[in-house]
Amino acid sequence: FHDQRAALARQLVQRAHLLDHLLTDLYGPRDVLRSGLLPAEVALAHDGFLRDCDGIRLPGARQLFLSAVDLVHTGGGWRALGDRTQAPSGAAYAMENRRVVSRVAPEIYRETSLHRLSPFFQAMRVALAQVAPPTVGSPRIVILSPGTASETAFDQAYLATLLGYPLVEGADLTVQDGRVWMRTLGRLEQVHVILRRVDAGWCDPLELRPESRLGVPGLVEACRRGEVSVVNSLGSGVLENPGLLPYPPALRDA
Q1: 65 with 127: CB under 8 angstroms?
Q2: Burial category of 178 from C-beta neighbours within 10 Å (exposed 0-12, middle 13-18, buried 19 and up)
Q3: Is there a contact between 116 and 102 (Cβ–Cβ < 8 Å)?
Q4: Are 81 and 147 a contacting pair, CB within 8 Å?
Q5: According to the per-residue pLDDT averaged within each range, which of 60-74, 188-202, 240-254 is highest?
Q6: Are residues 228 and 180 in contact, defined by beta-carbon separation less than 8 angstroms?
Q7: Which of 26, 68, 97, 99 would you label with 51, given CA atoms 20 to 30 Å apart?
Q8: Gap between the Cα atoms of 77 and 96, Å rounded
Q9: What are residue 160's phi and psi, to 5 degrees?
Q10: pTM score above 0.85
């Protein structure tokens, strides 16, 4: 079982790197489309591809911050059913489940060789700080939530607790002079990184879905100016397109 788990981990890392390269290319030079490896209509016609976000980049080489994969085990091994790159959830659920098991069945928990989850959240904190605009010394980071009506509201709230960042909604943020600010008691504080749990299309009613009340007017322009980093990046939902599933082998070998 350990060997299978290690092999699966390597394959998932490889898949994440592939998705990162694809996301970078689709919102950049689009070489994969020009070469014919991926039909343009498959990628560009998908609802997850946001033309208004074309050319927006995060600081650093990586453009896909977080991804998850739906897996199924068949007789021939593990198979991927789809990717979650819009606003992946579940990390905080996993931690809460782990803590419940450790209290309800402590003997079983101690005897089972489980990988600790806390390093994941420590690594996430470091990674979030690293994607802040390069001129910022001590970035202010928030988690953008669609609100308590969200089906993953607990996951969002617990994640904010684990990371130690404010959990905010669109109404708590405002854009002024091309920068994002958080409303606090009596003053505004600039926000440099947003870990979003709002689907990208709803994040800015000015440039994306005008009927949205979940987003922040002007957020896309703030990203375009490099004043704030939003992760996963706006437009990353294009990677959830099921039409991409037949193409990863060809893209990997390119």
Answers
A1: yes
A2: middle
A3: no
A4: no
A5: 188-202
A6: yes
A7: 68
A8: 29
A9: -60, -40
A10: yes
